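Subject: Sanity check before I submit

Could someone independently write out the structure tokens for this chain? I want to compare against mine line by line before I put it in a report. The sequence has 187 residues.
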Amino acid sequence: MIRYHITGGLSLDDTLDTIRYSAAAGVEWIQVREKHLPARELARWTAAVIEAAAGRSQVLVNTRVDVALACGAAGVHLPGGAPPPSVWRDLVPSGFLFGVSCHTVDEVCESEQNGASFAVFAPVFEPLSKDSALQPQGLDRLAEAARAVRIPVLALGGITWENAPLCLAAGAAGIAGITLFRSTPPR
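---
Independent answer below. Compare away.
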């Protein structure tokens, strides 16, 4: 199971505490999602998160390919409507990760065709950390998205440690969340 910790809504010190815990627990990917920060401050946060992850987790930056490259991050997470990974591939090092936010099965298929490393399908359930105008897609749509592509599809939106097994049973390669990683997973 791939675990994808997304930052947001905490101070830098509190964020780094959660990153250290997640990295020590073996979380595979961490996304620095601090949309409110200007580039210079986002780069400072990204460098701090990379240091806190201590090589145990790969760090991606939301939207900003330039910041990800400047900081030596493992990749970038692209929101819907952003230029696709195929636009950036010649500018990034080999193995650079591209995650893409998807809200429909068609978007998941399109992200794979455009060179995404993985897709984040959302919202599966009602989101815990924000209000969303998008209707929850449910486990059946998640299963359909996971079957439609070869790249990993991660479940996002209302994911808890209790419902995560349902997402995996539906075919998700992993789970993603903001609130999820602020709570201790069951052992």
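---
OP: Matches mine. For the report I'm noting this point. The chain has one domain: 2-182.
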